[in-house]
Amino acid sequence: xxxxxxxxxxxxxxxxxxxxxxxxxxxxxxxxxxxxxxxxxxxxxxxxxxxxxxxxxxxxxxxxxxxxxxxxxxxxxxxxxxxxxxxxxxxxxxxxxxxxxxxxxxxxxxxxxxxxxxxxxxxxxxxxxxxxxxxxxxxxxxxxxxxxxxxxxxxxxxxxxxxxxxxxxxxxxxxxxxxxxxxxxxxxxxxxxxxxxxxxxxxxxxxxxxxxxxxxxxxxxxxxxxxxxxxxxxxxxxxxxxxxxxxxxxxxxxxxxxxxxxxxxxxxxxxxxxxxxxxxxxxxxxxxxxxxxxxxxxxxxxxxxxxxxxxxxxxxxxxxxxxxxxxxxxxxxxxxxxxxxxxxxxxxxxxxxxxxxxxxxxxxxxxxxxxxxxxxxxxxxxxxxxxxxxxxxxxxxxxxxxxxxxxxxxxxxxxxxxxxxxxxxxxxxxxxxxxxxxxxxxxxxxxxxxxxxxxxxxxxxxxxxxxxxxxxxxxxxxxxxxxxxxxxxxxxxxxxxxxxxxxxxxxxxxxxxxxxxxxxxxxxxxxxxxxxxxxxxxxxxxxxxxxxxxxxxxxxxxxxxxxxxxxxxxxxxxxxxxxxxxxxxxxxxxxxxxxxxxxxxxxxxxxxxxxxxxxxxxxxxxxxxxxxxxxxxxxxxxxxxxxxxxxxxxxxxxxxxxxxxxxxxxxxxxxxxxxxxxxxxxxxxxxxxxxxxxxxxxxxxxxxxxxxxxxxxxxxxxxxxxxxxxxxxxxxxxxxxxxxxxxxxxxxxxxxx
Amino acid sequence: xxxxxxxxxxxxxxxxxxxxxxxxxxxxxxxxxxxxxxxxxxxxxxxxxxxxxxxxxxxxxxxxxxxxxxxxxxxxxxxxxxxxxxxxxxxxxxxxxxxxxxxxxxxxxxxxxxxxxxxxxxxxxxxxxxxxxxxxxxxxxxxxxxxxxxxxxxxxx
Lengths: 753, 157
Ligand code: FES
Ligand code: FES
Fold this sequence. Notes:
The complex is a heterodimer. By secondary structure, chain A is α+β, with helices and mostly antiparallel strands. Helices cover 28% and strands 24% of the residues of chain A. In chain A, strands 3-5-1-12-9-10-11 form a seven-stranded mixed beta sheet, with helices on both faces. Chain A is globular and about 90 Å long.
């Protein structure tokens, strides 16, 4: 980016403190406006008709009766998205939002209605007659790769293999990573273990369902208000699907009630816009919880084969993984991420991973917090424990023995800079939790995790207000405290109190493109851009002071929120405060601001180690988490309280995935548990306090050392809980969730052996 | 056929018109403009729509708007006293007990219902009292601490 982003050791005054967040009062008083809280005059109610079949070709859709119903203003099917309008790269996005010739999963949208109220819209849905021809379906990832499996896409010829196969299959793509010679490595091993691990399909489970209001004007421009993790991307994609110029669509992001990756993809938004275009009225569409489960995007279900070899003295000689990730009916890049992250914590001589993207009749897989890494970590970290046991080394020492360090060539390619996996392991080893005696009925497990973290495009404005306060405007969505962090960063750079900084999220009409909040990029990339904007503004402030003082700008330094004369004039001129400069701005050249546009490179990779104590009731198979500790490298914790919050939230989601959460499909290929009653996420009484320890190993590519912190915490829990449960019941658990029936079955199986 | 409903909402006499099959949640949000009451599921499983109805904690998605006739309702919008936040609201802010904040209105009401009955709850009692409210962001740690701190603050007052 050509700007100085190198880390510099410094004393912080604002960064690292824990002030109240600026959007807090609105959120505790019910004033904050989320996706479903926005309304427009004359707005219609939108509803979507969804396929009841797992796989069916759509022979005909008769909407005539629905259209004639009083109060119905528009009915939309795939026909309303003209093929010539749609950007070819977005065809599968559209196909998932509104089915074409085939419904690929239970819940796939086939038609939509806009009517004067909810009752009328629902009645209209019942009047739409869809003629289906039901096709054979497959929902299980291992079934789907079998040669006789029902074929989901006749044009799916596996990418990434040479030569391209002549026969279509459900394997959309293959990717491979690693180095060394694994065959050679296995020949050097004394002990080789091979195992298959399975993980259920988990949903992000954000409490706020997807919601949006779209208003398409007869002049071809449109406005959208939506809960999203990336309004600029939503704009580009919606416009690309409807054949609009992106500049004609303005998207405003609402407060967002959780996303965790699930709100980085389009689901209802192009449909709502199409309804509004057809009806010539604003349309509001809010998903029900049932729709969120059936028709938004959960994480992949997986099946992973791991093979590892070790010598008697405990040296890993080879590591091999084949990872099959279900991606729904459309090609995804999820197995690839699994294959990249699987062994990233370790320094291995011979390692190879192969990822298979597998099509199934389930909803299209979406990103879920450190997407694809938790499943791969479950497999690898379970295996690490087993190997450690085989060679008689403590799990933590076995990991330390193989830990990746600065200079290690990672299993996915790059050579690491300064990284935190070793320090998190050392911290875990010395943590009081690790040293605490277990109660009679308790067992302990541990596991490590890795996530890349992303950077990407960011743009920000810093405006010095007439009263000497500052407003930082960014275009990267705040999903859980980013405005507080950004205000801290600006306070730090400008040297003014946190309370004098306001952080604002701009709509797509007010700022240049910003990538979405994903890959833990929010605080890393936005803060980098904010620092840059501040530094531009400081240059301008120094120039203004130079005008007032009539000296050379070079002879001015910016310190603690004031311009100080240095050099010749030092001592003669009292400092000029931000307020002085803001108030005299009219005389010195007008409003003072800084602006930055960057592609943030060098997001620092992030590692964590978790420790977990469990109690398993061997009668019922019920697992209780007795104690849990998260140790993670944050680079630099800008607002430590919210960093802890990210650690705790990710751990809780991982615990839910480990113990209970999973999509359950019936024989008919329909989702059996599309609600919070049967898809059970952890509740307050399921969990203990979640202890956290923040390590700060600076990211060399950020002036303050910031790394992303949002995602890594969901990576270790599946294996940490799995290792603890396996120790508790004396049987190796190879499948999550480890729900009570699975634990009882594992105990039964062990007994009958 | 719409019905006319008169009830006391956060101390004010409010009249609204709703459909006979409309939930109280929808009526509060769409008719009375109280969008602080959130919908997370519509089936009584998440607690985001928690309100007090005649002093009892209920999920407003499981009550009909028409059932509010002549009854008294408290929502998150009525918790603060002018510019004076309720101790629970203060402690939620202090403890960063919210990340996205969509669950917060429900948690505040459920926690208030608990503290009205039990001013000195144990951690376990807090956890069980709030087990009907889902939060996906926080792992509950900071929420439980905030409620315990608010209880302490209220006992001192
Ligand atoms: S919306 Fe009422 S309990 Fe979820
Ligand atoms: S803070 Fe997001 S669901 Fe609780």
